């Protein structure tokens, strides 16, 4: 693979509300035993990209913790490797990353000292499976300056996305970020392929003008001057950047075809190994149409839900249409319906948390309680 | 390089013939246990949790699966530039061509490995027991007593003591006598097969015994030899959970203990984790018509039927309408729809067709191997295909790519075996 990778995992996101107060979006738990960034990292590794930088700033600690070893994604190699770039102070600069382009600009040495001809830029929160070899050969065939991986979406809240319009050659004519009145249904997934030298050139150019955003200051500003093409990704793709999308994306994994795509069709998604024991179902467990992960102990009733690792469900407790994140303890005789319970929460006995259908409540209770 | 204080030698070459078809092409330490683990994960995890980072694994019988499982030791954090895990198979030298003929002989043949590290102490372990033990505590005891050797022992009921190697101890737990499977046991302290030796003492004893015995063994030769030479041997009493899984019934029982509400052997403690090679990571799916109670499921397993009182490995599929009871299903096995499976052990990568009924009918002793298949369990060896709509009785053993014509009117009566080896053409 003739490309290096850059994963942008730095942004602050308020639309996941309390869930992202203490973690980056890329570190959000997804699909029972994964985190969002596992998908971006696995796509890089599975496409043969062996040198990847993760650029992060907002709430980076849980993300850095997750990336404590590069071996889980097979990046522990002499050639290449996994780099985590958080902002740092130098003689000339004491700024945080002021935008996505600035984040790359501040780590320009990574790009300059590499020799791969291409760079793949991907966000840390896209849930998809994609072979970059195909995107790259498309990029080369089209003689594009920049290729953006796009997805045709149906019945989504289109105003969340960057909307793209293309001509008959799939060359991008317009890109509007989070439009009020969306045109068409092709959205940018935030995955770009660009020649490394061109990327350096463009980023240095806009930095001179004190512009710092990759989408606004490069893609939108240069859309007429540079040849920017859309590569339409046919497979599953979801962004988890809103509470509703996060909830729905997780419950998508209750569908067999989605699980088979990600987990049973090679190459599969890799993640950090946590060494939890098998999931345990005791007397009184009634589990239907749900995913539970290793380390769970279940004594109650679980329906149409997703349990992440090390969740404890007490006796006579009912969990319905909910997502319970890692390490949560739910006592006896509780009712949890249409909720997302944050990780390491303690839900005491006899608690009732029920959101109305169509709404999602976030429950966080980290106060310790003792049996 | 900093000198290693202690090096562990893990004996993993045994066949474990009393596990029947389960160990046909797999060494006993590589047999699955507790859903996602293999038996050897327990001593290996104990090593790293006790701070021992140099382990030699002695293999001999069918080592392929074991080698693949251990690799370079990444799951146990035993991938080290100095130390770590080393697989030690028998080898040819200019003076001999010899298999490992006994436990001590195997260690003797790997003298160069131990000489290379030249540690203070050697820990001898066997790869076929299920337990959590802090070897560092045992080493502390060994040092405090200024012992030449320390043997871990477990209190057993006196009427069962004749099945074990029994240590007769004097004051301060000093061992005065050792009896292998005594008819009239004088004590109830059974050897667990875990020894710490001062390396210099062991080295000399291995050399001395090698001249006298062709099949030098720790229990039979080394320990009596040290006692006769007046060395200081102490018993270290262990009071935790320790299970020998040497027979099918014991293996099944030990697995079933894991599904108790709070099992005596608790895998869910956050400290003292048991590590294993985890190539499968997705969550477990339970279908909308599924039902399960008192069972454990490994990663990525998908249940569409009903599972009761069972231990299920990773990446298993159990089809709609299928009922699995009191059974052990190992990783990567697929069971189709509408089966009924009771008191059965199904090894890895098996395929069970639709409408199969296993563990059915009256009890009958196994005709060929009555002392192996005796407790009513039917055992299906790895990579076996069980064709649709067959009925299999109790105390049976099945192995190979079976088809309906291998059965007599789709039946296998209790106590019968059906083993078909693939013949190379």
Radius of gyration of chain B, taken over Cα atoms and rounded to an integer in Å: 23 Å
Number of domains of chain A: 2
Q: Any low-confidence stretches of chain B, pLDDT <50, length ≥5?
A: none
Q: What is the CA-atom radius of gyration of chain A, in angstroms?
A: 21 Å
Compute the number of helices of chain B.
Answer: 8
* Helical proportion of chain B, percent range: 10-25%
* Largest sheet geometry of chain B: 12 strands, parallel
Q: So, the CATH homologous superfamily of the largest domain in chain A?
A: Spore Coat Polysaccharide Biosynthesis Protein SpsA, Chain A
Tell me about this structure:
The complex is a heterodimer of chains A (371) and B (425). Chain A has 371 residues and is an alpha/beta fold. Chain A is built from nine helices and 28 strands. Chain A has two domains: 3-264, Spore Coat Polysaccharide Biosynthesis Protein SpsA, Chain A (Alpha-Beta Complex), CATH 3.90.550; 280-363, Hexapeptide repeat proteins (UDP N-Acetylglucosamine Acyltransferase, domain 1, 3 Solenoid), CATH 2.160.10.10. The longest helix of chain A has 13 residues, at 196-208. In chain B, α3 (103-109) packs across α6. Chain B is an alpha/beta fold. In chain B, the strands form five sheets. In chain B, strands 15, 17, 19, 20, 22, 23, 25, 26, 28, 29, 30 and 31 form a twelve-stranded parallel β-sheet that branches. The A-B interface holds A 31-34, 71, 253-254, 256, 259, 262-263, 269-271, 273, 275, 277-295, 297, 302, 306-308 and B 34-36, 74-75, 259, 261, 267-268, 273-276, 278, 281-300, 311-312, 314.
